[in-house]
Amino acid sequence: MKEMGNGGRADVNLVVSGAAGQGIKTVEKLLGKLLGRTGRFVFSTKEYMSRVRGGSNSTDLRVSAEAVDCPVERVDLLLALDGPAIGHMERRITEETLVVASPGDLEDRVGIRARKAPVDLEGLAEEAGRKVYSNTVAAGVAAGVLGLPLEECLPVLEGFFGDPDSEDVKGNTKAFKAGFEKGGDLDAGLEIEPGEAAGMLLMSGGDAVGMGALAGGVRFICSYPMSPSTAVLVFLARHARRFGIVVEQAEDEISAVNMGLGAWYTGARAMVTTSGGGLSLMAEGVSLCGMLETPMVFHVAQRPGPATGLPTRTGQEDLELVLHAGHGEFPRIVLAPGTLEQAFALTARAFMLAEKHQVPVFLLTDQNLMDTFYQVRELPLDDVDTTRFLAEAGEDYRRYSLDEGPPSPMAVPGSGTGLVCLDSDEHDEEGHITEDLDLRVRMVDKRLGKMEGIAEDVLEPELCGEGSIIVVSWGSTRNACLEAAALTGRDDLAVLHVCQPYPLSRKVGEILEGADAVITVEGNATGQFGRLLRDLTGITPDAEILRYDGLPFRADTLAEQLSSQLEGI
Amino acid sequence: MTMAYRHGTEGLDMAWCPGCGNFGIRNALLKALEDLEIPAEELVVVSGIGQAAKMPHYIKCSCFNGLHGRALPPATAIAVCNRDLTVIAEGGDGDMYGEGGNHFIHCVRRNPDITHLVHDNMVYGLTKGQASPTSMIGFETPVQPEGVILRPFDPVAVAVALDASFVARSFAGDPDHLSGIIVEAVKHRGYALVDILQPCVSFNRVNDYDWFRENSFEVGDDHDPTNREAAFSLAVGSEKLALGVIYRNEDRKTFEEQQPVWEEDGTPLFRRGPDLEELRRLAGEYEV
């Protein structure tokens, strides 16, 4: 743990754990508001089981006076809402961890090495009116331990729980105050001073992708619910009326992708949101997208597979899936955001790229990014490219004209007197079936020829640091890699983050050519990005750090892994 | 406006066998489109794969000839994104009731304003003679050499059971009847199924023109198509196949009518851009 100059903590990682249905999410949301409103920075992430009630889930809230944007393994404060939560968190509890739990639950865990702080959460909740306020008591304890000013907390509570005169607000406020007092009395030494976080936007990866879609002009989303991608469907459903979007829950992913293509055939910008299993079902539709040259945005939020895998957990196992999904040969684009700002900007960009180049664009995220919350100063709205790339269907319009492009100008039906014909068979310039094999070759060349234009729009990687040993990160591992590299204290390290895995910027190869060593960091077991690197640049990573237990990379443990890898280099 | 639908077959390299029931369906469709006075550029025919699904290549229209079994999802999306377009989904029994069976069920539930024309020849033509979902029990094929053992799928009964807003059946051998039914189906506000009995002269020697004539009957004036129970009885209780409008429910709202995007604005969605100012306000709501 880093010490601040003023003797206070640089950051505190608190974890709320309990069963599904105990209100952990409420604690997360309430503490997020309280911390933000009082000027603290907060990062939160959750791990949860694929069930509706029971089990043990946990949410990490990392609090600091400085910006925080990734998780750590270390637990400074554990708020255990039930007994099993202590067992669930045992692997992460150390002698330094302050465990707040009911006296009975703590007694059952006599062997545990920790600073124990018995607080009767349920008893205090009952005193405040109802047992269900236990989670609010816990939030109060956290606020007390972190040293938040009570007078700044109370107005937030009123806003959070609704009507100030309602029994719920009164009860919850009482419960919070009781917890707050206990938390302060613990004298835990975990106070966090306020920083410059006031006025920032606190949002999740799901929110950022949703707002990116709005910026990209989405008018149609059709999907079948699948964790962890559903947040985007829910977001757009919530704002469908306000922003004029058709939102449809399809009978299956096959329908979803085919509807999406139908929508974009009419010129309505469309997307689907799914996870690896859903994309497997959509694979034929991906191929159709390639053949019709009808644009489409595929948001793929990864989770560990194969098959059903770990439905609610994280991984980066589907890079090769999105690179290869769909039979036949056709161009595609893969984007993988590393931050919330990138999640917003790249989602908006996905719509522009899809329409400009008439190809499938995959936005590859994961549960780690979807379920992460932290503050951003602002969304880069002014940088959104809102250009449209639609032509008008004139009298002699030919959808697959060989005279222009590639791509051939895309018009939509009803935009003029011409006809707009698409065909999944190999087709002639008008869009009708053909088995003219010479024409077939020209059509293939025209479709693949779009890669040239796509290459001109490729996003460059981000290089942080000047060291000659380069840690390569792609997608959501960016922030953990950056902090981990800093934590190693070595100035011979640099981090290269790739937010567009395909096609890959030439810069990636150029930068890595000059490196003394290359270490890839990936959330999978086989090093998929490492293989892509080798394939596209000829560079073979010197070492790989792979995580595939369903949890995200955490800065402190990743730093240890980096340090041990560096010993061998 | 291009009202002149391609009538002759000159210049068309058609993949249908001489005598195929598809020719009668094409003639009936062309006549219906002329009667309806729909400009070609406002018509979108959506199809999948199979001989029937080649129809949009043989008439003048915009078309989305997509994947096998998947005509209904894009047809639904096209209808809901641009209400100025007339949308027809067309294909065969294997395409629409087999590969696309799930979409058929849910499309009836959604009730988009589209017309669904199914060429039902009780056999697979393009793959050369295997059983289709509507093949009769005992029908012998190279894949079912001892005869089909599965009960045939009854699209009309299923559609009535799902309270489809328009359900009809007609016969490729009677283009006048068929074109009249297509006109009614296209005019109908909401999803309209027309199951079209179609002889396959190459792969179905059982259900030929004569068989269909002998095993079908036109529903009389005494049938009330708004009576769902009567429609269901007609679908499942007749020894012969009923031809005509079997069922209609004018009370159902369409998929499009229930979309907030169409409440105050009739502009097709492709002409609407992003509202970045409103988005800026939304982002502001995330300030803690």
Poorly predicted residue ranges of chain B: none
Q: Which architecture of chain B does the CATH hierarchy give at level 2? A: 3-Layer(aba) Sandwich
Relevant CATH superfamily of chain B: Thiamin diphosphate (ThDP)-binding fold, Pyr/PP domains
Integer average pLDDT of chain B: 95
Largest interface: A-B, 74 and 57 residues
How does the helix and strand content of chain B classify structurally? alpha/beta
Instruction: State Rg of chain A.
Output: 26 Å
Structural domain count of chain A: 4
Helix content of chain A: 25-40%
Amount of beta strand of chain A: 15-25%
Write down the oligomeric state. Answer: heterodimer
Number of strands of chain A: 22
Q: Give the overall shape of chain A.
A: globular
3D structure, described in words:
The complex is a heterodimer of chains A (569) and B (288). By secondary structure, chain A is α/β, with parallel strands linked by helices. Chain A folds into 4 domains: 11-185, Pyruvate-ferredoxin oxidoreductase, PFOR, domain III (Pyruvate-ferredoxin Oxidoreductase, domain 3), CATH 3.40.920; 202-379, Thiamin diphosphate (ThDP)-binding fold, Pyr/PP domains (Rossmann fold); 389-457, no CATH class; 462-567, Rossmann fold (3-Layer(aba) Sandwich). Chain A is 38% helix and 19% strand. The relative contact order of chain A is 0.09. Chain B has helices at 21-36, 72-81, 93-99, 101-110, 155-161, 175-187, 209-214, 228-236, 276-284; strands at residues 43-47, 62-65, 86-92, 115-120, 166-171, 192-197, 216-218, 241-248. Chain B has an 8-stranded mixed beta sheet, with helices on both faces. In chain B, strand 5 (166-171), helix 6 and strand 6 form a beta-alpha-beta unit. In chain B, helix 1 (21-36) crosses helix 6, helix 3 (93-99) crosses helix 4 and helix 5 (155-161) packs antiparallel against helix 8. The longest helix of chain B is centred in the first third of the chain and has 16 residues, at 21-36. Chains A and B meet through helix 1, strand 7, helix 8, helix 10 and helix 11 of A and strand 2, helix 2, helix 4 and helix 9 of B. Strand 17 (421-423) of chain A pairs parallel with strand 2 (62-65) of chain B.
